[in-house]
Amino acid sequence: MTTRDSFSSQFGVLVAVAGSAVGLGNFWRFPYMVGTYGGAAFILVYLLFVALLLPIMYSEFVIGRRSQSNAYGAFKALAPGTQWKGIGTLSVVASFAILSFYCVVGGWTIEYIVQAVTGKFSANSASLEQTFENFTTSSFRPILWHLLFVGSCSVIVVAGIKNGIEKYTKVLMPVLLLMIIFLAIRSLFLPGASKGVAFLFNPDFSKITGESLLAAMGQAFFSLSLGMGCIVTYASYVKKEDNIMKLGLGSGMADLGFALLASLAIMPAVFAFGISPAEGPGLVFIILPRIFSQLPFGSLFASVFFVSLFIAAVTSGISLIEVITAYATEELKLSRKSSVIITFVIVAIFGSLSSLSQGVLKDFTLFGKGFFDMFDYLSSNILLPLGGLLIVIFTGWVLKKGVVKDELSSGGRYNVPIFGVIMFVIKYIAPIAITLIFLSSLGLLKIF
Ligand code: PHE
Question: Rounded to two decimals, what is the model's pTM?
């Protein structure tokens, strides 16, 4: 038997997991949600949910590292002869669903890099809205960029864990950190920036509503890459002596740190230019280009921003492709190369459909939604919460407590502080909380 590929160092694991977590969720979704749901109060609630979901992150680390297997094989190994391996099937389906819209937005970042570098942004927001609309609804260019995006991720995944994923994320993540710090500093020194800072850090508790609570929890799930076998898969390449408690906490904090830095890069600028922060999903693609166009060296800052967005999206895209690749190589016995090629072809087809659903296929709907929205809805609102729920139930109620403790302490090498609290959250709090958001996001329960 050939030995399984693995990460070569703890730092390698940290940047790879953080790379998966830090993505469009942090740079595009988080800032506009903060803007929409009232700033600092939303951030506080979000912090609470990150703390609540960290035990799920630990659960996924436990399952992956213990089994040393892909998301399907992991449950097969830990609960032989049971149906728990269905979580693995769910993970593969969720990966395809997320890739099918995520890579389209990944493609948009390439278009915006090209526009930024060629200095195409004008100060006229109407025309920027038109530019965004014209581009996303057209047929050819978005698909071309989409394919380029999936291709870039595929090339990295084909090279393997050590020589692909770890090698690239080790370089890309520090670059990403420097770029976003650079942008945050630029933004903070704009005249009028302080209003944006106050918006981010002075909570107005009357802004907390049922809807913002649910939005914060969904965002935490998506942003931490939880509930779909991604962390299980990466953890299966972690060495027995690595400290997974530290790694889980470290990647969770990195994800949070990037989300806050992204907001610091965006909000002060938004306020400095007197724009409403509640612009929704267009914030990054419509509002930011307008801001950049009014700044000295705006093209440079715009290029840095959209390159950052692209890097963040790639390091997440590869983790999604790896979930499928690990499954296909280990369960279906395909070679790594064929697995990635097949994944590429399937994502190319579904991604193209979802890209076209912004334009020519607009009227073609399933369950009342176009392809793009359907993939987004299906993954964030159904597959991730369902996967997350099953994972905590599995860890809390099926795995033996001793196994969880042994894994979290890496075979007794490290202390596991607050083990009792972690187990309590895994067994009771997380399943109940997830069930509530799950039901309410399906519209089956009105909690607030
Ligand atoms: N966490 C990623 C982001 O914030 C998205 C993602 C979700 C990646 C699930 C992998 C798994 O962009």
Answer: 0.93
